Amino acid sequence: MKPIISFGIYFCAMFLMSYYFVEMSFIKSIQFFSIITVIHIAMGLIDKFYKGKQST
């Protein structure tokens, strides 16, 4: 349950940040959120891979 809530908070924060603070249109804010999410997931996977290689 905790990952679902944290993803919901992350989604709301990123969407609101791009929509209101950066003042993008609705479609561009969704694109911005998608790009940031892909980068965030890739950085997490790279970090897990790097930590796994260091421990062996």
Structure description:
This protein has 2 helices and no strands. It is mainly alpha-helical and 56 residues long. The longest helix is centred in the last third of the chain and has 30 residues, at 26-55. The N and C termini lie far apart (32 Å). Keywords: Membrane, Transmembrane, Transmembrane helix. The chain crosses the membrane at residues 7-26, 32-50.
SS strand fraction: under 5%
**Rg over CA atoms:** 15 Å
Inertia-based shape: elongated
The average pLDDT score comes to: 80
Number of strands: 0
Given as residue ranges, the uncertain stretches (5+ residues, pLDDT < 50) are: none
How much helix, percentage-wise, in residues? over 70%
Structural class, from secondary structure content?
A: mainly alpha
What is the string of SSEs from the N terminus onward? HH
Q: Specify the biggest β-sheet.
A: none
